[in-house]
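Appendix B, example 12.
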Amino acid sequence: MTETVTAGGARIPLVGLGTWTLRGKDCARLVEQAIAAGYRHIDTAQMYENEREVGEGVRESGLRDQVFVTTKVMPDNLHAKDLERTSKESLARLGLDQVDLLLIHWPNSKIPLAETIGALNKVKREGLARHIGVSNFNVALIEEAVKLSEAPLVCNQVEYHPFLDQSKVIAACKRHDMAVVAYSPIARGGADKDGVIARIAKAHGKSPAQVTLRWLVQQGVVVIPRTSKVERLKENIAVFDFELSPAEMSEIASLARGGRIVNWAYSPKWD
């Protein structure tokens, strides 16, 4: 049985496949292989330009009813009419009647959040998305979005790994029964090069990537590592057969030194 976290009425599998940069037939094949390997959570976005291939992989797996599919609305599409139109376009590309989770990919300070959240709720009411949420929101935006939304916002998807302290955002999410979904959870390979993580990994007979993912899921954080390698697919999901001690958890947490990887000109003011 797939390990899950429950938030706002959604049951989200703790390990998913991130698909950023995956393209074409390789993307479709990898999604299908991930599902065959036991993944039950696939993450895509309008911005990734691979929804068609992701949908193909999900359908070819023959297990659509078991797979939690997330897509995200790009920041240029956050006016109500654009969000509604492009959400339908995403479903058409995916070849699905409904996504399990629809997120605002990035906040857009030029578009009123009330308008965007209203449209997101409408899309959910119309049955295009089972659940809705946000991504790359800071604490102030989380508080504002929760007040504006009729339906539960079930998650905030953010960059999170041992080198980045996200305690303020995590605390805000907990206050509102929102899951935290970590992208770049292995710090784009940075975890593989860290001596502390390597030592802990050796003690458990695991890889540094597995220890890093275990550190996150042991906190109840959902992880969506991206990989293009089939062997890494299997490695990334094999994180439920060991446990880190409280001392090891603390030691890994102490590595946080502001190592943010994803930071655009349009990013919000981070906490």
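The chain has a mean pLDDT of 96. The longest strand covers residues 129-135.
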